[in-house]
Automatic annotation (TrEMBL):
GO cellular component, one term: P-body
Biological-process GO terms, alphabetical: negative regulation of translation; nuclear-transcribed mRNA catabolic process, deadenylation-dependent decay
Protein name: CCR4-Not complex component Not1 C-terminal domain-containing protein
Keywords linked to the UniProt accession: Membrane, Transmembrane, Transmembrane helix
Membrane-traversing stretches: 68-87
Organism of derivation: Tritrichomonas foetus
Residues covered by the CCR4-Not complex component Not1 C-terminal domain: 727-998
Gene Ontology MF terms in the entry: molecular adaptor activity
């Protein structure tokens, strides 16, 4: 109400006695305040009334102030400008829950004068909730908004409206009784179809009939055919109530009955539609059932049943159907209650979407939900100085009250500190736990300190031997310290400590570590170790993850991590369903069991005997016999051979086999097929072998992926490929897009010497397209799953850069487009490829298609060709280009957008060609163009553009020289220190990486620091970063990183200063 305040303060306009008198009046109950106002008005004490109004306008808006100011309105005691501003302020709050309640009270308070305020009446009608909250007022306002009605005269002094007291649904005192299903009755076999089964049910006794009807519903889907059999409907209703009642005792495991509740709701809805009326109240009173569910903590399960029921009858029971309106009123009251689980809120909104209404509009009265109800979400609480994530049933009244005060606003929950409780701190400490290493024993402090210094190195050896600590500490204290390290936020520390935990707990009785994970969220390493050692029960995992997924603050953080952990949980706990986590995290149900690998056909026994004979003897006669059989073999014959050797591939601890699994049968088959390749049609044999692999791939990848890898790898070794097309087709069939779980094996198969290393050297379009797709697929796997694929993919890139540098040089921008800016090492590897003979390789990508579609080339060509030298024109063109680049950068999500790198590449390539002999480019129009574009971006938005320019620093050539001069000119001409600092930071990130960038990056960094040393020093002193920069500069200029001769460790060595 700042705009409603008078120019002066109330203390300057009224005496202290008046102000004291006013405060005394306003401290009374509302009824007494009204009486005092009437007395002041009768005695014409206008000064006191003005003082009261001034005090109310300066006070925070509340139901009390709105009620009293309404009295001033109806008695025309408020100035017109102030009335206008007050009405404007009330209308601005109309769309908030609290603002709606205040506007409803104010409209009642000024009801006699409402005809004067037509705009305010029309504003009230925009709130759809008014017709449900106060239908009488809604009808009156609707009439007044269209046609002003003069009300009969009455004394406005006595018109004083008290705030509406909060109304509640009456508490449930009687719970509907129902009979459980008979446990002693045998299950009667159903008939061949639904209708025969229903006819048979009519002949059974009452107890048998109930059980039989429930079995019918669970077996057959609902039908639209009219069924007149009341016991059938009664049995379904009774079983639905039984499911909801039993759900109150099993918490999260009750999610397993959701399919049954959905089936029951669909059946009741289908029977209702066929009969044209809802089920009788004595069978199923849905509003009463909802209120009972709220009282029992099973509302989430009841909503599954309710949604399934209304899916069938939504066309019949649309509002204003009285039953539907009552249901919506109950659900609206639940939405207004703070602390409700997010999955329940989502189900309520989905129910409203089904009826095409906004459920919150139907709020009319509150409903009492028990504080320890299962329908409330878990929260953080403080116990003995530690923050613990507890379910609602274990929370204290003070914690629940605190969160109720926060309300449903996530902003309040995240930013407010109430009574010393900082929720944002709790989130950070729970999801990013850092152990107090000072309290650890000496050997574990060594582990902690050692792992912290190797985070940036990408080839840290993971096969080091872990020694079990031996000291005088008790076993319990030692385990506590190890677990504290294992749940740390550092991946290397967590992995090391988890391995130590598995070693220490081997042979020990299972521990219960579930309470620890209430204080810190587990990482995948300790979670895997606990599941292997049975220290974290599946039910506890299900409860913790479900509670995190149903809290509005923790759900966005926990959901992606839980989705990543669940495949491991399914694998290590195959007998537990995790039903609630599946539903809440959106994880699909387990697919149907994989069909087994087909057994060898009996008709192929002669071929199998010939194979066995050749595998044992290796003489010419056995080879001739096997070759003769293979000359007429079809795909099905080869499938039988593969199935036969797969059956013989078993785990075997034998000194004759270097692996735990004996692959000798598979190796023998690959060798035998290779020996046949020269005597029969090689193309037919290869095609049949690959077709057989494709036929059994689905089953083999799910059941024996290592055996399939061994088979394909052996065939690549022994078969002779005249055409690479069939090999490419097989590899594309086995790619991660079709079989994600086979990704690691697929990468190794592609890197076979007959595949990628051979294809990348060809000059044919089809093999080259496959190689491009392979590298891009590897990059995507690294980005999505760095812990699994990073090391292997980095080695592939380094090998390719060394053995086939032309491949990276010709297609480097296509690869960089798929690499986020934070993956510095991958960019360095690709850009470090050099041409051995100094030639200029061809460019293998189109760098102007997007520029042409956006009409950018027509704008920048005159600038690059120096035909446009006017700075004003260049600046206007920069504005046009900047608008396009900003839009793409805002949607880039950490990558360099295609249009950005194409713009930079086009400018650098064309300018380098035109200005080949020009050493001083500072005055070129293209430099002014880049300066104008960068000046329009903030630091975050300018980073992709500068990174794209740094990507042009490659092996020595004209483009590298021009890009280096361009960056130098941008640094010298930059008007802000932010962009200068950003250029330095971009170069330092490349230079600090374990894989060094091209030499041109180091040369540019030294040139900038030597030429602009004073400017750099002043900039760093202003930012208080001089010491950090000196440390980085010392590493960049004077030291490097390389592998030792053994290749197992990383050592540092000194460089001579780069000139």
């Amino acid at each position: 109400m700042k705009k409603c305040k008078y120019p002066t303060k109330i203390q300057n306009d009224f005496s202290p006695d008046q102000i004291k008198r006013v405060k005394t009046i306003l401290s009374r109950p509302l009824k007494d305040i009204h009486a005092s106002l009437c007395e002041l008005l009768a005695e014409h004490k206008n000064t006191d009334l003005t003082c009261i109004l001034r005090h109310l306008l300066d006070s925070p808006i509340s139901e009390t102030t709105v009620s009293i100011i309404g009295w001033f309105f109806v008695n025309s005691l408020i100035p017109v400008p102030v009335a206008f501003l007050y009405l404007k302020m009330m209308m601005s709050q109309l769309n908030t829950p609290k603002g709606f309640i205040l506007n409803h009270l104010f409209a009642r308070a000024i009801f006699p004068r409402l005809p004067k305020y037509g705009t305010y009446c029309k504003s009230l009608l925009t709130s759809q909730a008014l017709q449900y909250y106060d239908n009488e007022l809604y009808i009156s306002i609707k009439q007044l908004a269209h046609e002003p009605v003069c009300l009969d005269y009455f004394d406005t002094r006595i018109h004083f409206v008290l705030p509406r007291t909060e109304r509640y649904f009456s508490p449930i005192t009687y719970f509907e009784q129902f009979s459980p299903l008979p446990a002693s009755e045998p299950l009667i076999q159903l008939k061949h179809n639904l209708f025969n089964s229903i006819e048979h049910a009519r002949t059974l006794t009452a107890e048998q009939q109930r059980l039989y009807c429930v079995n019918i519903c669970l077996t057959y889907p609902p039908t639209s055919v009219r069924i007149r059999f009341p016991p059938f409907l009664s049995a379904i209703c009774s079983y639905s109530k039984l499911l909801l009642h039993d759900s109150s005792n099993v918490s999260w495991e009750a999610f397993e009955v959701h399919p049954q509740l959905e089936r029951m709701g669909s059946w009741i809805g289908a029977l209702t539609v066929s009969q044209g009326r809802p089920p009788p109240l004595y069978m199923l009173n849905i509003p009463s059932l909802l209120r009972e569910s709220i009282q029992n903590g099973t509302l989430g399960h009841a909503l599954v049943f309710l949604t399934a029921f209304y899916t069938k009858v939504s066309s019949l029971y649309q509002p204003p159907n009285p039953v539907t309106n009552l249901i919506l009123e109950i659900l609206a009251a639940v939405l207004r209650t703070p602390g409700i689980r997010t999955d329940i809120i989502e189900k309520i909104h989905n129910f409203g979407d089904l009826l095409k209404v906004d459920v919150s509009l139907f709020f009319n009265r509150n409903i009492v939900i028990p504080e320890n109800s299962f329908d409330r979400c878990a929260q953080f609480s403080t116990e003995n100085g530690s923050t613990v994530f507890q379910p609602a049933a274990l929370l204290s009244h003070e914690v629940i009250t605190r969160y109720n005060n926060f309300g449903n606003s996530l902003n309040n929950s995240m930013n407010n500190i109430d009574n010393g409780f900082d929720l944002s701190f709790c989130l950070n400490s729970y999801f990013h736990y850092v152990p107090n290493h000072g309290m650890l024993p000496q050997e574990q402090q060594t582990v902690f300190n050692g792992t912290q210094r190797i985070e940036k190195y990408y080839f840290v050896e993971s096969t080091s031997h872990l020694m079990t600590p031996r000291n005088d500490r008790t076993e319990q204290e030692m385990l506590q310290c190890i677990v504290s390290l294992a749940i740390a936020d550092s991946p290397i520390l967590a992995r090391t400590a988890s391995a130590l935990f598995k070693k220490v707990t081997k042979g020990m009785p299972p521990l219960d570590l579930a309470p620890i994970f209430r204080c810190a969220f587990p990482n995948k390493y300790i979670l895997s170790a606990c599941l292997n050692r049975h220290c974290f029960a599946p039910a506890d995992i299900n409860s913790l993850f479900s509670e995190l997924l149903t809290n509005p603050v923790t759900a966005p953080i926990a959901k992606p991590m839980i989705q990543e952990f669940m495949p491991m949980c399914f694998e290590l706990c195959p007998d537990y369903s995790f039903a609630s986590v599946r539903e809440l995290a959106g994880i699909p149900q387990r697919k149907n069991p994989t069909p087994p690998i087909p057994q060898p056909s009996a008709s192929h026994i002669p071929l199998l005997r010939a194979f066995l004979n050749f595998s044992r003897n290796h003489d010419d006669s056995s080879r001739s016999e096997f070759t003769a059989k293979m000359s007429t073999a079809s795909v099905s014959h080869i499938v039988s051979l593969i199935s036969f050797v797969f059956c013989a591939t078993v785990k075997r601890n034998s000194p004759k086999t270097p692996t735990a699994i004996d692959y000798s049968a598979i190796d023998s088959l690959c060798f035998a097929l290779g020996k046949c390749a020269g005597r029969i049609d090689n193309g037919t044999l290869t095609s049949n072998c690959f077709q057989a692999i494709e036929n059994i791939a689905q089953s083999a990848i799910d059941l024996q992926p290592k055996a399939l890898f061994r088979l394909v790898n052996g065939l690549f070794t022994w078969l002779h490929f005249r055409s690479k097309m069939r090999m490419i087709e097989l590899l594309e069939f086995l790619s991660p897009s079709h079989f994600p779980s086979f990704s690691l094996c697929w990468i190794q198969l592609v890197m076979h010497r007959a595949a990628f290393p051979n294809l990348v050297r060809t000059n044919e379009s089809r093999p080259m397209q496959f190689c491009l797709n392979f590298i891009i697929t590897c990059l995507r796997l690294v980005i999505d799953y760095p812990d699994v694929f990073y090391r292997g993919v980095v080695r592939i890139l380094m090998t390719t850069a060394s053995c086939a540098p032309l491949f990276f040089i010709s297609y480097h921008e296509l690869f960089l487009e798929h690499i986020p800016l934070r993956f510095v090492q991958l960019r360095n590897i690709i850009l470090s490829a050099t041409v051995p003979d100094g030639s200029t390789p061809p460019i293998g990508f189109d760098y102007s298609d997007t520029l042409k579609s956006k009409a950018i080339i027509a704008v920048i060509d005159p600038i690059l060709q120096k035909k446009e030298n006017d700075n004003a024109t260049v600046g206007s063109n920069a504005v046009f280009i900047t608008s396009i680049l900003k839009r793409s950068i805002s949607e880039s999500n950490g990558f360099i957008p295609r249009i950005v790198w194409q713009f930079v590449f086009y400018c650098v390539a064309k300018s380098a060609e035109i200005n080949m002999d020009n050493d001083n480019i500072g005055g070129l129009p293209v430099v002014h163009l880049f300066c104008s574009i960068l000046s329009s971006f903030n630091d975050a938005s300018a980073s992709p553009i500068l990174e794209a320019v740094v990507d042009q620093l490659k092996y020595p050539n004209n483009q590298t020289t021009f890009a280096s001069s361009l960056l130098f000119s941008l640094f010298s001409k930059s008007e802000t220190t932010n962009h200068k600092e950003l250029i330095l930071v971009t170069l330092i990130k490349r230079l600090m990486c374990v894989t060094p960038p091209p030499q041109s990056v180091r040369s540019l960094f030294k040139k900038i620091t030597m030429m602009f040393g004073n400017d750099v020093r002043e900039m760093l002193i202003q930012n208080d970063e001089l010491e950090a920069f000196r440390a980085a500069e010392a590493i960049v200029v004077n030291a490097g990183i390389k592998r030792s001769s053994s290749g197992r460790i990383i050592v540092e060595h000194d460089h001579d200063p780069v000139t």
